[in-house]
């Protein structure tokens, strides 16, 4: 059965005799968490370093040792029983060694190959290096020789070989199913509302895309302020929206973050349907919102929506975490520690600090999404994991969107629960949100009413809408407010000369010219009913409104310009994958083709050795140069034809280089392809590519 599984996964091959596939040994560098034996790990040491090490171990200069082989054999003999060496190194050194004993056996230190002697060693690491209890693999990596680790383990290969998984805690008070589902449904409703509010704002005021890809820190903070949530939650909401295909960038080289046309279809679904799409996107994406705000391995900040916030094991970790919650006793909350312990038992080779953090992030994100309530997996989340439809179960516990509000005489309106989409949009346009919570309070002001009038609504439109959706008659103060603002709205019209002001009544313009506050507007009269200004139209509108007036923008033909920007949408790039529309087990043909191509190229590189380096060199001459738009088109064409290209590329320091690349896809401001010069799949930022030339087939 084990061999059948290994053959199915292409880890072994052969019909009569089974052989490990190429790369398996390299994938398992530390069996049982053990490092290489001393004979292997010290083989890279120079002869003078080996001589000094043997001298320190034996207390005298080695005699009769003329080659490295005999010196390494002597070191191996001394490390076969290193108890005296460990005791001599001291307690601090032993504690440092203990952190590597059970694996992984490697650590990172600065200047690992520096020469150290027993009599000059100062730090615990230096004392271990001087006694051979640690060996330097390169300038920054040290490892514990296998003999030392086995001694400290007491001869055991594994710390724990439990046949059964660790039990769940049973002393926690269980919660009833109804409480769990209601709590999870409340979170599910909240996350849908927050994502809708965020995308509505970005459809009107889209944030720019950073040149390196992603969302700027200031824009993330603005989103957090808008939603009144922490920045990590705002990053999670943006990442979920992108994973569900509702958000994308509007260009390859630059652009803005905008909702996609799929967002409009998403809005037409009920709350349960919207949540299902978000949950599917989160489960399948390899993006890791928890990385946002941290530093990558090059000490660069990881921005939301950037390519750095990815990890291939994220989807598997999410599924494994939720599966453990599903196996827990009914109603019993499972702690993050319990989930990590069980995952360590189920998947011991995948453990490590990053996997532990992914588990913690998965639990936090599942709670935000409403997959869990009070730490317990909700029933509709179980349906989602089992491939069933969770909408019917979730819909029973969600509040029905209403189309009525309570309008009060103090110019406020109270929405006691969620509103239907059309009413929510109209209220957001006509009034300002004053507070949120169990009920949303809107306040009508002169500015908010003018905003609706600027967007093309009339006074009768607003009063009809309020009358239709008000549970009580529209209060007289609100009707007076709407009519008063509408009466003054549009009396002034602003255009561009740079700009001008026009009014039917010359007395209105006389009042403006007589007002000292209008001096900065640089106005002068062209005609009895026309004033000109050196300011732009937008600045002139702002200045006149600061005088308490209510002007509107005017087109060259004399028509009123609706100044509220229309909601904008961005089409996903042609190669972008809308995860929510993809069958669970589907794999694109392009991915399979690119994978096979990379495997074959790797095998060719292994066979040719040094010849590969020569073959991977670019053509003679300077790296190519081409316009930015042409670069993107050439790369997309190469992806479709499966052609090789020669690109010029600038690194972080601005150094130019040339690469031979087999493009796989172009999306999100990056080219993903097999880099023949390095025999590896690599991502290239499009704005750093100076030019592209397609190479003819050999």
If you had to describe this structure to a student in words, what would you say it looks like?
The protein has 698 residues and is an alpha+beta fold. It folds into 5 domains: 34-153, no CATH class; 177-396, no CATH class; 406-488, no CATH class; 499-547; 589-694, SH3 type barrels, CATH 2.30.30. 43% of the residues lie in helices and 13% in strands. The strands form 7 sheets. Strands 16-17-15-14-18-19 form a 6-stranded mixed beta sheet, covered by helices on one side. A 5-stranded antiparallel beta sheet has the order 23-22-21-20-24. α10 (177-204) packs across α14. The longest helix has 28 residues, at 177-204. The protein is elongated and about 115 Å long. Mean pLDDT is 85; it is low at 574-584 and 609-617.
Continuous helix count: 28
Cα(first) to Cα(last) distance is: 44 Å
Secondary structure tally: strands: 24
- Which structural class is indicated by helix and strand composition? alpha+beta
Q: Percent of residues in beta strands?
A: 5-15%
Major pleated sheet: 6 strands, mixed
Assign a percent range to the helix content.
Answer: 40-55%
Approximate shape: elongated
Mean pLDDT: 85
Query: Over the alpha carbons, how many angstroms does the gyration radius reach?
Result: 34 Å
Whole-number total of structural domains: 5
Strand order of the largest sheet: 16-17-15-14-18-19
Low-confidence stretches: 574-584, 609-617
Domain WYL: 631-693
Domain Helicase XPB/Ssl2 N-terminal: 405-527
InterPro entries: WYL_dom (IPR026881), XPB/Ssl2_N (IPR032830)
Pfam family, one: WYL
């Amino acid at each position: 059965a084990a061999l059948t599984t290994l053959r199915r996964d292409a880890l072994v091959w052969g019909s009569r005799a089974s052989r490990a596939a190429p790369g398996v040994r390299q994938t398992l560098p530390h069996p049982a968490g053990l490092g290489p034996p001393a004979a292997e790990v010290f083989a890279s040491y120079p002869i003078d370093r080996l001589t000094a090490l043997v001298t320190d171990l034996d207390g005298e200069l080695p005699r009769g040792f003329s080659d490295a082989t005999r010196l390494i054999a002597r070191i191996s003999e001394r490390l076969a029983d290193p108890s005296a060496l460990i005791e001599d190194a001291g307690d601090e050194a032993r504690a440092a060694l203990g952190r590597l004993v059970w694996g992984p056996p490697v650590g990172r230190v600065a200047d690992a190959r520096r020469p150290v002697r027993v009599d000059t060693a100062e730090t615990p690491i230096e004392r271990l290096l001087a006694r051979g209890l640690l060996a330097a693999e390169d300038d920054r990596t040290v490892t514990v020789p296998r003999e030392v680790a086995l001694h400290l383990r007491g001869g055991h290969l594994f710390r724990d070989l439990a046949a059964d998984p660790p039990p769940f805690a049973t002393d926690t008070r269980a919660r009833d199913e109804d409480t769990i589902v209601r709590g999870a449904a409340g979170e599910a409703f909240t996350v849908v509302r927050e994502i809708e509010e965020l995308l509505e704002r970005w459809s009107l005021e889209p944030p720019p895309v950073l040149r390196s890809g992603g969302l700027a820190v200031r824009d993330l903070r603005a989103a957090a302020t808008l939603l009144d949530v922490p920045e990590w939650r705002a990053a999670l909401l943006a990442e979920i929206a992108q994973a569900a295909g509702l958000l994308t960038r509007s260009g390859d080289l630059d652009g803005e973050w905008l909702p996609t046309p799929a967002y409009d279809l998403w809005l037409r679904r009920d709350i349960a349907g919207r949540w299902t799409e978000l949950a599917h996107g989160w489960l399948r994406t390899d993006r890791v919102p928890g990385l946002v705000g941290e530093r990558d391995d090059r000490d660069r900040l990881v921005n939301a929506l950037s390519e750095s916030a990815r990890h291939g094991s994220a989807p598997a970790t999410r599924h494994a975490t939720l599966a453990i919650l599903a196996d827990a006793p009914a109603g019993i909350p499972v702690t993050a520690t319990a989930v990590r312990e069980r995952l360590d038992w189920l998947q011991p080779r995948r453990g490590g600090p990053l996997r532990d953090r992914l588990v913690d992030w998965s639990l936090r994100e599942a709670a935000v999404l409403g997959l869990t309530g009070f730490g317990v997996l909700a029933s509709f989340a179980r349906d989602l994991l089992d491939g069933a439809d969770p909408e019917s179960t979730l819909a029973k516990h969600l509040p029905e969107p209403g189309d009525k509000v309570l309008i009060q005489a103090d110019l406020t309106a109270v929405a006691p629960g969620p509103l239907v989409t059309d009413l929510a949009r109209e209220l957001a346009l006509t009034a300002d949100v004053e507070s949120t919570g169990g009920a949303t309070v809107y306040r009508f002001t002169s500015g908010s009413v003018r905003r609706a009038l600027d967007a093309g609504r009339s006074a009768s439109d607003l009063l009809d809408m309020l009358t239709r959706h008000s549970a009580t008659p529209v209060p007289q103060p609100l009707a007076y407010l709407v009519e008063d603002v509408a009466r003054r709205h549009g009396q002034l019209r602003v255009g561009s000369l740079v700009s001008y002001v026009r009014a039917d009544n010359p007395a209105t313009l006389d009042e403006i010219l007589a007002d000292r506050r209008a001096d900065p507007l640089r106005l002068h009269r062209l005609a009895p009913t026309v004033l000109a200004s050196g300011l732009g139209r937008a600045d002139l509108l702002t200045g006149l409104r600061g005088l308490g007036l209510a002007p509107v923008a005017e087109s060259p033909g004399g028509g009123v310009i609706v100044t509220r920007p229309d909601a904008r949408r961005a089409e996903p790039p042609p190669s972008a994958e809308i995860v929510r529309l993809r069958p669970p087990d589907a794999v694109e043909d392009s991915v399979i083709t690119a994978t096979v191509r990379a495997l074959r190229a790797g095998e060719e590189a292994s066979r040719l050795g040094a010849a590969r380096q020569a073959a991977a060199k670019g053509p003679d001459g300077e790296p190519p140069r081409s316009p930015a738009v042409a670069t993107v088109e050439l790369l997309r064409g190469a992806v479709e034809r499966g052609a090789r290209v020669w690109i010029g590329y600038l690194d972080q320091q601005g150094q130019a280089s040339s690469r031979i690349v087999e493009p796989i896809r172009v999306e999100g401001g990056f080219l993903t392809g097999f880099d023949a010069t390095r025999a590896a799949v690599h991502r290239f930022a499009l704005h750093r590519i100076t030019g592209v030339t397609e190479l003819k087939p050999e």
